[in-house]
């Protein structure tokens, strides 16, 4: 697997280059905003990628918390199954769906939650769920930082201001601050309880993700309305470029997570070796 | 500033952020490799 990394990295760079070219030169120019609208092809995929990573962090954190306890583990498994089932039932039971919500996206999201829960459970042992949570939070913060930087760079020429304290922008900033706090806690706390405390913080932090995502559907905000779902529309050529960019960023995020995951495991092994060495040192000195 | 400059600024800023993060990862890896070499030397 490790041999595949350089090949995948080269493919990823080529894909990102292609996606950037599509965003800058192939996508049609928006009529009212002009070329500055092309920021959208970096801003939106970065936001979706950050949300996905925070969501993975949420699932990994839950699993880290529950897998030590049989009852909690079984309970969480059933909740995951029920979420998938409820999403599918809702498609048939709730008619009509609230404005802008696609029945297919409800079922897909619910089944994705269930699927991801069991995939992580199958492929990550208990102690590795903590590593996965840390890695997804860190890479998620990087993508969320891109969102918070590119957003104002789009807003300045379009709105005439860099920032406004409306719910979409403020909740995104709060989300970023929550996960930065999570990383600070993990970096500087030396307590043995840190992974559990951080996992609990992550579970609460993840509650902000749906607030950010649905804020433009529910509240009146200055932020543009959703272009996919939510009653919005987008030129098919723009949608095509947007999805290409999202795929490229997902690929990039997956490689970053993989590299960071391996690095974290390596770091933990080095730390364990240091601990063993310090335990053996007095004996060595005595002998 | 012309609006096209904001576009270039946004794309540049994105890659500055990502490349900074990658360089942090590389530095962490190199530091760990040095530690491993020191441990092997003991």
Mean pLDDT of chain A: 89
Largest beta-sheet characterization of chain B: none
Residue runs with pLDDT of under 50 for 5 or more positions of chain A: none
Q: What portion of residues of chain A is helical?
A: over 70%
Strand content of chain B: under 5%
Provide the fold topology.
The complex is a heterodimer of chains A (287) and B (42).
Chain A: H1 4-26, H2 40-66, H3 70-93, H4 103-123, H5 126-159, H6 167-188, H7 194-205, H8 208-218, H9 236-286
Helix pairs in contact in A: 1-9, 2-4, 2-5, 2-7, 2-9, 3-4, 5-6, 5-9, 6-7, 6-8
Chain B: H1 3-41
Structure description:
The complex is a heterodimer of chains A (287) and B (42). By secondary structure, chain A is mostly helical. Chain A has a domain at 14-26 and 37-59 and 127-224 and 235-275. Helix content of chain A is 78%, strand content 0%. Chain A contains nine helices and no strands. In chain A, α2 crosses α4, α5 (126-159) packs across α9 and α6 packs antiparallel against α7. Chain A is globular, with a radius of gyration of 22 Å. Chain A starts with a helix and ends with a helix. The mean pLDDT of chain A is 89. Chain B has one helix and no strands. Chain B is mainly α. Chain B has one helix at 3-41. The longest helix of chain B has 39 residues, at 3-41. Chain B is rod-shaped and about 60 Å long. Helix content of chain B is 93%, strand content 0%.
Quick rundown:
The complex is a heterodimer of chains A (287) and B (42). Chain A is an all-alpha fold. Chain A has 9 helices and no strands.
